[in-house]
Amino acid sequence: MSPTSLFAQRAKPDDDTRTARRFTESASGDGAFMTASQCLAWLDAHREQWSYSVERVPLQELDGWYFAMDTGNLAHRSGRFFTIEGLRVNLSPARTTAWHQPIIVQREIGILGILVKEFDGVLHCLMQAKMEPGNSNLVQLSPTVQATRSNYTRVHQGAAIPYLEYFTAPRETTVLVDSLQSEQAGWFLHKRNRNIVVETTEDVELRDGFCWLTLKQIHELLRLDDVVNMDARTVLSIMPFAPPSAPPRATADDAYTEALRRSLDPQAPALHSLSDVLSWITESKARYELTQRLIPLLDTADWHRDGDRIAHREGEYFSIVGVDIQAGNREVGTWMQPLLLPAAPGLLVLLTRRINGVLHVLLQTRPAAGALDIVEVGPTVHCTPHTYRQLDPDERPRYLDYALGAAEDRVRYQARLSEEGGRFLNADNSYRIIEVDDDFPLELPDGHLWLTAHQLMTLQQFGNFLNVEARTLLACLHTLW
Amino acid sequence: MSPTSLFAQRAKPDDDTRTARRFTESASGDGAFMTASQCLAWLDAHREQWSYSVERVPLQELDGWYFAMDTGNLAHRSGRFFTIEGLRVNLSPARTTAWHQPIIVQREIGILGILVKEFDGVLHCLMQAKMEPGNSNLVQLSPTVQATRSNYTRVHQGAAIPYLEYFTAPRETTVLVDSLQSEQAGWFLHKRNRNIVVETTEDVELRDGFCWLTLKQIHELLRLDDVVNMDARTVLSIMPFAPPSAPPRATADDAYTEALRRSLDPQAPALHSLSDVLSWITESKARYELTQRLIPLLDTADWHRDGDRIAHREGEYFSIVGVDIQAGNREVGTWMQPLLLPAAPGLLVLLTRRINGVLHVLLQTRPAAGALDIVEVGPTVHCTPHTYRQLDPDERPRYLDYALGAAEDRVRYQARLSEEGGRFLNADNSYRIIEVDDDFPLELPDGHLWLTAHQLMTLQQFGNFLNVEARTLLACLHTLW
Q: What does the pLDDT look like over B164-202, one tens digit per residue?
């Protein structure tokens, strides 16, 4: 075979552009199988059919889990899944420069994958009705596959994971997008998952608990509280989109949505070049020095453990609690595990602004205790407001009060969404996208920058730049055009 | 100020393209101040003028350094610079799955920066004649600034670092490229430096030991043994280039250099799309599980320490030795420090091939003990041949024998280049770029892929993908057009 024929065999010259165009078509395509409201009913039916139950139990009564004698770390007897250990953090320069905390350690890289296939010429996503014990409504819409390496190497001897073979090499599917993305770096040490979308042109057997939806339908569901789970949102966030054509009828939101559509365009004039964006991130990483050392959980100052839970002495931040799960159709029908219970809900806000007719979003670089690479790019506001309840306004996080005071008609997106229900209990956060007023201050504090949607999509392609909350908001932003 | 005027003030719509074009012009521009051979003479004069001396001393006699009582770790009394600690590595799946080794720990992110300025319309780089104790010829051409955070926060109370103010915020220069890049992950734990090129339009005072060179001149010097140091090479490797126009006169190498010029073009047909390239890296990261735990240096199995050095019991890999440095013009005139002494030289080879008229280079993903993110992208061959001297051919690294047996006329680039002389002693490696024969096997082993030069430049823009040896070879590749 000559190099030329090798090239002809494999070359896909404009594949990346074509992928973006096909996702965009799916985002305006009606589904071939069910409507979004039928999907909601289907999720409800699933929830009722299996009568899941999740009950709190003391940590010391968790089957399969134990506290190590020497360190006090909480671990599974198989040595797999995850552990709760202690972390000593030194961060400089910053107001709070050193602290101890418990942290979830899960070194293995799992798979969050969506299988897509064309029906009637439109890409559909194979989505799952999945129970996660930490979700307040238990069953939410999740990716086709959501598997830790422990899951898919069958450590817990459960049933095989449906559709896993479409995602693991050697595969017969085509990879459309594929990147490593981090998860909550305040709670996990260096945790990432492989976010991947693969396409098949073969017939796919539709198993119980799965359905095919277009991106338009998933976007409708993402505008509702507690329907699309975090794992689905992060996979949605790595999908590139091309600028869609304008809708046939004018609406009141024309200027905003038109600016958003233009923001998807690689050619749209951005306030900053891509080099400037990357330099902004590099500068932030060079500014901080972050030292992370795992320590025995027993040695974490200000945290205490009894047989029931692990908690901060003032009840702040979060605690680690145990749950007993009964479920009919998971890989294992019943199990117990620890979960991280946040002390209060978080608020995640993306401020947005039209600049020269192109929508820009305001992001910040923020260091985090468990970050793999010092800082990540987060939403404009990323905090737990409860933590700051007694502070003076000028000590509260930048833009928090602005976001809380925004007029209702400036709030373009608002929903309560839960974080990963396999690790966190009732981690229900409020997500908002707000259009700023015209008199919004132009001078930005250090570490903040206005980016276009296309620039965010570019960062997403390379992975490990946006934190999971910013990625959720990017997925939500795509529901607005 | 309206958003529009904000935009007008800051927007630089085609800056990234313009930067690539300006670097390309500098790579074909004669210098305004000295020729390449005059620069060589200037380096020699610098070497003679200051009569540097570097002598080996036992580790226990290093002024300012001590072995910690409890761990045996080697550290500086100031608590800064770097430490030599123990590392326990678990890597799966891999042939050797677990080992201990000493590792250099240097958490701070330093700056490797080149200041550029136009003279006669052509960008010139401000380069330095810099002594590093580990370089066999001591003085080499280095970036404008090469500073650890300890250096630039003045831990050792030396003189201020010349030109540092052009690189640190708030700066009055324009940042052209700026990314974090790793260094030898077999010897350093999670080490990265900020690689940055900034431009000034102001007058710059030319200090003793500095000179202005175009990229064409630096490329000429990079074709010679031991002239351009590692820090300069890695900064050169982040510079983007646009396809240059063909030279006026035909040469014997036309087909190869024309394919290389086309390989710089974002529009040139590549064997794989950028998504495929990124998926290849993601897949490699997901394939391995790498656990790194710092342990006391005293506990590293198979390694021993006496007052003289730290070494492997069979004399393999490397040792840690001490040196006493006398120098006239460094920030501090005299000091002692540990250096890592490799047991044998390394061989770094890039195999290249024309595919449909576009030059492609063969890269591999490789895990490394101290990697921040499991694997990095390295050259086709990246090894210390001495380590494999007694193994059967099929146990030796893939393509090692192919590279060693390449006909002389297929070797497009060959030079002996030293690694970072501030940390490594006599780490002289052989770097080669080879054009493969037409019958080179098309089937690649797992973890290998053909990329274009433009795809490498794209990865470089985002940082943390290519290892430092691959970056050196990318810089060398640019000397061939």
A: 999 988 888 999 999 999 999 999 999 999 999 999 999
Confidence of residue B332 (pLDDT cuts 50, 70, 90): low
Report the candidate in B99, B64, B65, B106 with the shortest Cα–Cα distance to residue B85.
B106
Q: Are B282 and A372 an interchain contact pair (Cβ–Cβ within 8 Å)? A: no
User: Which chain A residues contact residue B373 at CB under 8 A?
Assistant: 180, 372-373, 464
Q: How does DSSP assign A199-220, residue by residue?
A: E--S-----TTEEEE-HHHHHH
- Which residue among A7, A12, A275 places its CB closest to the CB of B355? A7
CATH number for B391: 3.90.79.40
Closest to A410 (Cα-Cα) out of A349, A471, A456: A349
* Distance from C-alpha of B362 to C-alpha of B380, rounded to nearest angstrom: 6
**Neighboring chain A residues of B1 at a CB cutoff of 8 Å:** 442
Residues B339 and B65: their CA atoms lie apart, in Å, by 12
Contacts with A278 from chain B: Cβ below 8 Å: 178-179, 461-463
pLDDT band for A3, please (50, 70, 90 cuts): very low
Residue B13 lies in a domain: no
Residue A57 located in a structural domain:
no
**Chain A residue closest to B458 (CA)?**
A462
Q: Which of the four pLDDT bands, split at 50, 70 and 90, describes residue A11?
A: very low
ipTM of the complex model: 0.93
How many domains would you assign to chain A?
1
Asked if residue B145 is part of any domain, the answer here is no
**Total H helices, total E strands in chain A:** 11, 25
Tokens representing residue A122 in the block: 């439109």
Hey, are the CB atoms on A442 and B6 less than 8 Å from each other? yes
Burial of A426 (0-12, 13-18, 19+ CB in 10 A): middle
Residue-number span of the structural domain to which A275 is assigned: 254-290+344-480
Task: Flag whether B279 is in a domain.
Answer: yes
Q: Express each pLDDT in B361-388 by its tens digit.
A: 999 999 999 999 999 999 999 999 998 8
Tell me the chain B residues in contact with residue A16 when contact means C-beta distances shorter than 8 Å: 273-275
CA distance A436 to chain B (A): 12
Helix (H) or strand (E) holding B480: none
Q: Between A430 and A80, whose confidence is greater?
A: A430
Closest chain B C-alpha to A40 CA, distance in angstroms = 33
**Angle subtended at Cα B423 by Cα B418 and Cα B427, rounded to the nearest 5 degrees:** 30
The structure tokens listed for B141 are 């051409």
pTM (2 decimals)? 0.94
pLDDT, tens digit (0-9, with 9 covering 90-100), for B266-315: 999 999 999 999 999 999 999 898 999 999 999 999 999 888 999 999 99
B2 pLDDT above the threshold of 80: no
